[in-house]
Amino acid sequence: MTVKHNLTVGERMRRTEEFEVIIVGAGPAGLCAALYAGRGLLKAVVLERGVPGGEMLNTEWIDDYPGFEHVLGRDLAARMTEHARKFAADIRQENVESIARRDDGIFEIATTGGTSYEAPAVILTAGGTPTKLDVPGETEYAGRGVSYCAVCDGAFFKGEIIAVVGGGDAAVEEADYLTRYAEKVYVIHRRDQFRASRLLQERLFANPKIEVIWNKQVREMKGTPAGLETLELEDTVTGQASTLPVTGCFVFIGFRPNTGLVRQHFEHDASGYIITDDRMMTSIPGLFAAGDLRVQLTRQITTAVGDATTAAIAVEKYLADRRSALDAKAQVGV
Ligand code: NAP
Fold it and tell me: In the beta sheet, which residues pair with residue 109?
């Protein structure tokens, strides 16, 4: 017998699943939020477009996660995933397209796979993406000389000669920071002046371990299977090519928080980082944010899991308050 209905093919293919909380992104923040949601016995799902682990998967060695003196990024990612699953985390490979809050306070999350996820609370842990130079060798030497995080990787370059690329606050500040490890730090900038704040510039110019290379663009990164050896440079004024021998290259040419999925306006700073309260709730009620996409002083694995712990526990309280409010409304209606 043929069942007849009025749904379009698209509507028939789109499934809706309901949860108490949806966690978007499975980096350290997302995995930790899942662990705490599991401990809180919340009906939760984690949506991750790739493999769980986030930026940990782009980091060779991690030396600053308490309890792990020296651990491979991918190993820590696997351990965090396993730990979250011990608390029944439901981690699904889904590419989130949009997050929208309805008037009844329920969030609708659309995915490219066709499943629609609904919940009264969402924890956004989608991280951010460092801007890449997009030159030959950059991907090849990522984690073997090329880095996007001075605090994470600086200690691996003790006594070495390295370069920083960029001319903004991040490049200038991190170049100064890296001199505590490196013997010499070249700062390569494509123009003849920095856009970084004057205070940071003054500190940089006063640092004898730093040499600025003006008007140069990195065109290629070269090395051996053991790691990076040289940067191939081009003068942005004369076009002249040159080679700079370095064993490390830190790229700081911008960082974009992955917040474009949220359809409603939320409070953010001038660079697009989400502003939250001390419970990690954004200006959209029920939308929490944790990790790299949140406004904060530093972006570490430790801070990401701290944010996520707060967010997941705050979600429990938010859901309880919401239930009480709905019950009270229902009683008034009786
Ligand atoms: P940014 O201010 O956007 O600076 C990016 C820098 O990278 C610029 O100097 C830019 O050159 C250069 N650049 C961009 N694309 C490039 C490319 N393809 N090749 C070579 N160079 C390229 O980014 P940011 O330094 O990451 O800072 C982002 C935000 O965070 C800013 O608002 C900053 O104030 C804030 N921040 C603040 C602090 C602090 O206050 N301590 C620390 C870090 C970041 P041009 O100058 O030629 O455009």
Answer: 99, 117
